[in-house]
Amino acid sequence: MVHGDVPSQNSRRVGHQVMFRITSNAGVFDDSEEAMKNFASKVKRFLKSEDGPTAVEYAVMLSLIIVICLSAVRSVGTNASSTFTSVAGQISGTPAS
User: What average pLDDT does the structure give for the chain?
Assistant: First the structure.
């Protein structure tokens, strides 16, 4: 320690030497353990309740509805495109391809 330096909050001066206190991170680990236990209990509660399976059923139904709608729109679009091509060919006098 250089002359004039002020010891930090985690240290104390003993004579001319500065002794550092060793602080444990036990509080940090306790908090993270408590958070993990809290998270685990919430997951268990979610899995036991009926909300989880209901949400999954709704998600599956929604995805099926979206797939059906997309395939229907594609089919209608293809049919409309061929119809418009046929009509345009008849108007211009060229045969439809």
Answer: 76
